[in-house]
Each structure stands twice: as structure tokens, then as C-alpha cells.
């Protein structure tokens, strides 16, 4: 084994959520927005995509 080789990392990434009313909640529409690395064009994350229902929930909680 090459002692200079980078370790293999493994992680479980939770689903994208909004933070509304002090809670992490799934987006009402269940959609996400890809986050693209401009250096290589690869998707490295997803964000929760909000819609009018999410806005209504957040405004009601405020």
C-alpha cells in the first residue's frame, strides 16, 4: 500500500432541508437544486428548493 495515498472517505449526507420554525423540514415540493463546481462542472451538493408552501410555512412561523 502506498503510504502517501489519500484515505477513502465515506459519509452519509442527509437530505436537503429548510430550517423553519427552529426545525429542519423537507421542502414541500420535494425538489432540490444542484450545486455545480464551476471548475469542473460536477455537481457536489444539492439544496432544498422552496416553493410558495415553504414560504407560507416560514412566514407563519416568524
* Mean pLDDT over the residues: 90
Number of β-strand runs: 4
Instruction: Assign the structural class, choosing from mainly alpha, mainly beta, alpha/beta, alpha+beta, or little secondary structure.
Output: alpha+beta
Write down the Rg: 17 Å
Q: What attributes characterize this protein structure?
A:
single chain, alpha+beta, two-stranded antiparallel ribbon, 1 helix
Question: What does this protein structure show overall?
Answer:
The protein is an alpha+beta fold and 62 residues long. The protein has one domain. Helix content is 16%, strand content 27%. It has one helix and four strands, in the order E-E-E-E-H. The strands form two sheets. The protein has a two-stranded antiparallel sheet with strand order 1-2. A two-stranded antiparallel ribbon has the order 3-4. A hairpin with a 2-residue loop joins strand 1 and strand 2. The longest helix is centred in the last third of the chain and has 10 residues.
Amino acid at each position: 500500500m502506498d503510504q502517501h495515498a489519500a484515505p477513502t472517505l465515506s459519509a452519509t449526507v442527509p437530505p436537503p432541508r429548510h430550517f423553519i420554525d427552529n426545525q429542519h423540514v423537507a421542502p414541500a415540493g420535494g425538489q432540490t437544486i444542484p450545486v455545480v463546481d464551476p471548475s469542473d462542472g460536477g455537481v457536489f451538493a444539492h439544496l432544498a428548493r422552496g416553493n410558495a408552501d415553504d414560504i407560507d410555512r416560514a412566514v407563519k412561523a416568524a
